[in-house]
Amino acid sequence: MSSPRIDARSWVIRGLVLGGVFVVARAVVGDTTKAWPTHGTALRMLGLVVVLAVAAAWGFVDGRRDRTQHPDPELGGEDLTVRWLAAAALAGFAGGLVAWLSGKVGLELGDKSLLFELTSGAAWTVLLVFIAALAGKALGATLATRSSAPAER
């Protein structure tokens, strides 16, 4: 039995888009915090929710599509866990690198070092994206199973 293949484009696209969402969220939070410094915590939470929502929504679509195409998970399906782990890792490292580079050219995305952005910062982003995407995948697969179950009876 062969192991499931992962389409390289699928995780790269997901990783780059979510890395971009992460950087844009940090930029918007940084700019709006300058304008409204007393609302910094709420703005950071809003940026966090945006990143989580995008990852969860994309995971939901993946899980629903996979379960619709492969109704019996025992007989096959795509390896969405590995796809999303690779995408989350790319989002974390690419987002951290772009955020650090943006700080060097004058954008205010924080004053963290490259070491921090590529270790702790990237790990946090990987965790957020991966957990949110897998939660969305599980919900999408569950809802796809429930919506097809009455038709089979």
Automatic annotation (TrEMBL):
Keywords: Membrane, Transmembrane, Transmembrane helix. The keyword Electron transport does not apply. InterPro entries: B-4DMT-like. The keyword Transmembrane helix applies. The chain crosses the membrane at residues 12-29, 41-61, 82-102, 122-144. NCBIfam families: B-4DMT. This is Integral membrane protein. It comes from Antrihabitans stalactiti. The lineage of its organism: Bacteria, Bacillati, Actinomycetota, Actinomycetes, Mycobacteriales.
